[in-house]
UniProtKB/TrEMBL annotation:
It comes from Xenopus laevis (African clawed frog). Gene3D superfamilies: Jelly Rolls. This is Cyclic nucleotide-binding domain-containing protein. Residues 1-34 form the Cyclic nucleotide-binding domain.
Amino acid sequence: LTNVKLWAIDRQCFQTIMMRTGLIKHTEYMEFLK
């Protein structure tokens, strides 16, 4: 694996993790607003 490929995989994983944590936080926030 080259650094570029490794970075691309890392970035994809990072985006997935950020989206998941973002969704979890958003859900908690919506529950809080209720």
